[in-house]
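Example (one chain per record):
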Amino acid sequence: MSKKKDESETEKEEARIGVFVCRCGINIAGVVSCPDVVDFSKNLDGVVVAEEYLSYCTEGGAREIKDAIEKHNLDRVVIAACTPKTHQPVFQAVLEDAGIPPRMLEFVNIREHDSFVHMHEKSVATEKANELVSAAVARAKLLEDVPTEIVDINSSVLVVGGGIAGLTAAIDLANQPEIEQVVLVEKKNTIGGRMAQLDRTFPTDDCSI
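Predicted structure:
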């Protein structure tokens, strides 16, 4: 058991992490000192390369990441950029093209979570970016590849509650081609919840029922 633990610790210590700081035009670079974040990242345990680029979500940016992965034999990637809500799938695809499992990506939002909220505090924004990247690198060392499994779904759905949320969910589900049946259950005699109790609704003054 001790031997397995030692092997696991060695494996984590040998993680080869690349940190890529996106300037996002001036959205990030106008507030956060990206060169300082890069210099800070280079000294973090496990990081073998840290770079910055104008916009990593572009074709040129993707090429920069792939080249660094190949050159430095990276097995984990930390992206410090904008919102992962729209861009995380983009970078996961970059990793996959480079031969790294997409789950080996750790994403740091230094735009909405940093530069946008510290627009008038540049030194604070840079310090916060460093802390966010440091936390991401620490987490990246613990990442494991979890395979994605596709399974069949049950084509019948039960929605509990006939309020606005339940009605909306039931309608949305019923419009999905994979769903054959939707059953809506409501304990009261009427549906609509609180909404049905309103006389008029803004801004049209329509009857809520």
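Caption: The CA atoms of residues 18 and 89 lie 18 Å apart.
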